[in-house]
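Forwarding the complex inputs:
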Amino acid sequence: MQITVLGLGLMGRPIARTLARAGHPVRGWNRSPLDAELRQGIVLCSDLRQAAEAEICLLMLAHSAATDAVLAQLEPHLRPQTTVVDMGSSDPARSQIHAERLANQGIAWVDAPVSGGPEGAAAGKLAIMAGGSAEAVAQVRTALEALGRLTHVGGAGAGHTAKVINQLIVGLSIQAVAEATALAEAHGVAPHLLRAALAGGFADSKILQIHGERMASRRYIPGGRVATQLKDLRLAAKLATSAGLDLPHLNDTLARYEQLLAAGHGDLDHSALHLLLDQGSVGA
Amino acid sequence: MQITVLGLGLMGRPIARTLARAGHPVRGWNRSPLDAELRQGIVLCSDLRQAAEAEICLLMLAHSAATDAVLAQLEPHLRPQTTVVDMGSSDPARSQIHAERLANQGIAWVDAPVSGGPEGAAAGKLAIMAGGSAEAVAQVRTALEALGRLTHVGGAGAGHTAKVINQLIVGLSIQAVAEATALAEAHGVAPHLLRAALAGGFADSKILQIHGERMASRRYIPGGRVATQLKDLRLAAKLATSAGLDLPHLNDTLARYEQLLAAGHGDLDHSALHLLLDQGSVGA
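Prediction (whole assembly, two chains):
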C-alpha cells in the first residue's frame, strides 16, 4: 500500500520509517524543507500532487489548524479510493466535518491519534485510537498496526475524542499527584519513599511514578509541554460544553494550566502544575 | 517472635493466619466474640493481659477511635521490649501522640497501614507503609515482611500519612475517571473501548480499568465503601489544614463524597462518585 506521511516532525519521521520498515512504499511531505539528517531514510514527494497519489494519506501535524490548512491544499489532488488518516490530536468536531465532506467525494476518513511519543512510533508500540466507519478502519488497519495497537473506538471523530479524554485523565491525574506530593513533603514523607510504598497499588500510575518524580526534583523538562496539555484540555472543555456537561475538575485544571501559561511556563513539562501548589513558586 | 493480632475482622483474620503460616507463634484477640468458623486456625487470647504478652502487639481495627480505645485498655498490661504496630488506617496525629507516650514507658511504636485488601493479606502480598524509628521498624520488619512488601517512609505517623495520601490519590483519580467516563458516553465513545484504547498508556491506571468499569455498568458494589473513602479524605483535609496547604481537588472531592453520603449512598463503592455527574441520578 502506497502511503504518504504529511508532517515530518518529531512524530511523523519515526512513523514514516516504521511504516517503510514494515514493507510499505512510503513517501514523506513536509510544510518546510527538512535537513538532510532529519530526512534520512525518508523519500520525499516533489509536491502535494504527488503526495496525494497514495492509498493512504497520513497527516501528523501539530494541531487542528495545521491539519485543516494542509488538508485544504491536499484535497483538490485526492482521488477516490484514498483514505485520509489524521494521526494528530485534532478537534473532534473538525474531524467530523472533514469526514463528511470527503465522503461526498468518495474519499474515506479515519482519525487515529496516538499516545506513546516518538519512542513508541520508532518501536511500533503506539496506542492508536481510531474513529471512522468500519470499512474505512478496515482499509488502514494492517498499515496502522505496523505502528502499534489499534482500537476502533467509534465513528469519525471518536478517535480524536478518545485522545482528548486521554489528556483529560492525564491532566487531572497530574493535579492529584501534585496535591499528594505537596502533602507528603509538608508532613516530612519523602516523595520517593511514598512512590515506592504506593507502587503496584490502587494509587499507582505512570503519572505518579514519572511525573511525581519530576515534581519532587523540580525538574520540569518535557516530556509533554504545558502549552500542549492546555490545548488538549481546551478541546476537552469544548466537548463538555457541547454535551451540556459540567466537569468541575476539568474546569479547574484547565484554569490552572492557563495560569501557568500566563506566568510564562508554557514550555515546561505539564507536571509543572505542581508549581501552583509549591508556595511562592509562581507569581499571581 | 510471639505476636498478638488485636482486631480479627476482614483484614485481621488473614493477617493472623499468614503470620502463623510463616512460623510465628500468633494469638488473636477481638472486641466481640467470634464464630467458630471465623476463628478457624486462630488461637485466641483469654484476655488483654495475655494479649499483651508478646513481642509484637499488632492492631488492625476499623478506625482511629477504635484503635485509641483498644490501646487504652491494652496499655496497662504492656511490657517494655514490646512493639505496638498499628496496621489500621488511623489519624497520623494520633499515632504521633501514641508513639511518644509509649516511648516514655520503653515501648516501641510502628504505624504500618496497608493496601491490598483481605486477598493481599491472605497471599502475603500487601503493600505496607511503615512509620517509626529505624530501630522500631527493624524489630518488626521480618515479621511484617511475611505479609507483603514493607516500605519505611518516615518517623511515627508517616505510615498513616502515606496511607491517607494513597486514599487522596484514589479519590481524585476516581473523580478524573468519572469525568472521563461521562465525557466519553456523552460523545458516543463506549467506555469499554476507551479503556481498551488507553490501556498501558499515561492515562491508564487500576482506577480507570476497575472503577471505570463499575461506573460504566452502574454496578457500585464495594470494593471500597463511600463512607470509608470519606473518612480517609477527611483525614487528608485535616493534614492539609495543619500544614497550611490549600488542595483544591481534595477539597472538592471531599465535598462530593459528603454529598454522596448525605444522599444515602455511604455503602456503595467509592466509584459511585460518578453518580454526581450522571445527570439526575442523585437528588440535590
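The first helix of chain B runs from residue 12 to 21.
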